[in-house]
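Hi there,

I know you've been waiting on this one. I reran it after we fixed the sequence typo, so this is the corrected version. Both the input and the resulting structure follow.
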Amino acid sequence: MNQVHKKVITILGKAIKTGESYEARFDVANLHTSSSVDVPVIIERSIKPGPIVLLTAGIHGDEVNGVEIIRQIIASGMNKPKCGTIICIPVINIFGFINLKREFPDGRDLNRVFPGLKKGSLASRVAYKLVNEVVKEVDFIIDFHTGGAGRFNAPQIRITENNKELENLATVFGAPFVLFSKDIKKTFRSTCNKLGKPILLFEGGKSFHIDKHVTTIALNGVKRILHNLGMLNPRFKASKPASKPVFINTSRWQRANFSGMFRASIKIGTKVIRGEVLGTITDPYGKFNHPVKALQGGYIINVNESPIVYQGDALFHITSKLK
């Protein structure tokens, strides 16, 4: 992690010295009613030098579990570092969060427009401001996400492959799974990597839902990272993970062969064998009952929790190759 001690950092146009606490305002555009919408950016700087860590959530407005994770970090005071700086942005896509929608009002997915344009679409302007007025000052980022469309993600860290620094940080975080995944063009993660800013992307739970177990795993992971960096406030203790993370090279979705009412019978995170029954698809009339059997062995890292599925819908995300 490249780190240069900065006595003064500039976040959203405000110069903040070591030892200061400051709540900046991330404002891009008003609502159509002319009401202002300001996203609080909470900055806590220790007097002691150390890394500048950025914690973000809510890039997708319906992924509320990530927002809850950062809310708890701030409410507990975990964001007050022993050294260095912690910057928290609980809700980046405030427009989507207000309406519990994934996208921006302009219909764009914020996580597909980075690094953004100063005079671009609304989503693009937010991306541009985040990158140029926040990200460029930081040393390390953790970005919190959930599964979408009713699909529940097992708690996992996603990183690019062949990066020892990220592998080490992911191991320290201690989520049950670490998934190697390629950077997708114009995502926040891809942009941070291009800027040389190490980033861990946490996935856990599903949209429109706050899950206590997932939240606890994420909070414990943040404690371990801060402890590893020498930043954890002495009020908190970093626990050891229950087990070593499972590193995953490749995985595949198993899709529905039939439309109908769906019920998964396998617990997320479970290791299954080929041919094992994972759930059932039935019709509403009691005439059809189709067992969904695993097409391969591996860990279940995502389960579709929708009660109704159509032929071709993704049901289970199963690991196919472990590191």
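Quick highlight: The helical segments are 64-76, 94-99, 122-133, 164-173, 188-194, 212-228.

Best,
R. S.
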